[in-house]
Amino acid sequence: GTISDVQAPQSNKTAYDGLRDVVAGGVSSNMRARGVAAPLVVDSAAGARIRDVEGNELIDANMGYGPHIFGYADRDVTEHVAARFRCGHLTGLPHRLDHEAAELVAELVPGVEQLRFANSGTEALMSAVRLARALTGRTLVLTFGGHYHGWSETLLRTRECDGYRPRPLAPGMIPEAMAHTLQVGWNDAAAVEAVFEEHGGELAAVLCEPVLANAGVVAPAPGFLELLRERTRSSGALLVFDEVITGFRVSRGGAQELYGVVPDLTVLSKVMGGGFPVAAFGGPRQAMKPLAQLEAFHAGVYAGNHAAMAAVAASLAKVRSLPGLYTELEALGAYAEARVHEAAAAAQRTLQVRRVGSVMSVALTSPATGAVDPDGHRRLQIACQGRGVYFHPIPDEPWFLSTAHTRSDIDTIADVLAESLAEVCAE
Ligand code: PMP
């Protein structure tokens, strides 16, 4: 696609200062505020590029936090949704597209037979956890440090714990918010065993990102997902995979297909909707029974609106129709990983790269300690942004590659990284 004409040019700083006056913090998502190291206000986006209000074009490696596996403004998805908007996109009644979208999800995701649609990952996770509690009659949920499951009251927690107890992350959360949430380290099998030993009979669910992608990318250690599967099964708890990032991204059937471990409940969003606000949670029919019988509660005026369903149907039909999609994304990811390492070597620095397919975290490390250097990384990000390459300034946030990124785009990113590293490290 092409990028639309720019309105009257305005500097990013002026635009950002103006909007900060009326939008609290300048953003409608705290995650996004952390993304603004140097002001960048978007005019439009297409393919792998965003255009800012000054008229600069930047190659984007953040890609809206992951939904756009085919790039921005993908015609197949966008046209389908635009057509739905012209036909009335919200009636508050069932639509044939609900069936089409749900069948595609159920066909592609091993653990999903039946589902409900929601508007965001946060909502779908709230509902999945509630469903797990309804099914088990228990309340405790075991989570893992650094895994992000949205900003709801019982899941928005600190990365560090007092024992197994995380703390509410932010002011305004009720102090008891974490009374039913436990947390251990990701890939810490001994800690999982200890929690099951002590609390196995009280656990409603074990909830994880099957590939951690919110604290850099950390794949599950060999056998770790299998351990979670086995312990949940034998203790009567549900295994819940938050595949908001990994679903239709690390393979067609998500991480559960890639690693061959099928959870009881799956939460999906992002790639499923090609950038439109939509999410889903589902499982075997038996697990969805409290909702099928309308005993458990989940609702929403906008949940499963016809435009969102058109987005899911179009995105997943496209995912299904491209046999080589995941081989292509893996090859692109491997190429990017190699080029990023070369760029770092050219500047005599080390970038830590962790990758599963097209999801890749890149973090500047300190030569003295070898640890991630968040301040240096932020300066690197600002320098790259000035040269036309955008990625998130927080090294925890991964890069998301898409079929719209060419080898030549990756080469440009690598060149810009090398130049920016040389500049930042000389400071
Ligand atoms: N789970 C994961 C793994 C996520 O990465 C995110 C968002 N980045 C969420 C849940 C929350 O989704 P949303 O922002 O749509 O509420």
UniProtKB/TrEMBL annotation:
It is an enzyme of class 5 (isomerase). GO terms for molecular function: glutamate-1-semialdehyde 2,1-aminomutase activity; pyridoxal phosphate binding; transaminase activity. Keywords: Isomerase, Pyridoxal phosphate. It comes from the Bacteria. Pfam families: Aminotran_3. PANTHER family: GLUTAMATE-1-SEMIALDEHYDE 2,1-AMINOMUTASE (PTHR43713), GLUTAMATE-1-SEMIALDEHYDE 2,1-AMINOMUTASE 1, CHLOROPLASTIC-RELATED (PTHR43713:SF3). Belongs to the class-III pyridoxal-phosphate-dependent aminotransferase family. This is Glutamate-1-semialdehyde 2,1-aminomutase. It comes from Streptomonospora nanhaiensis.
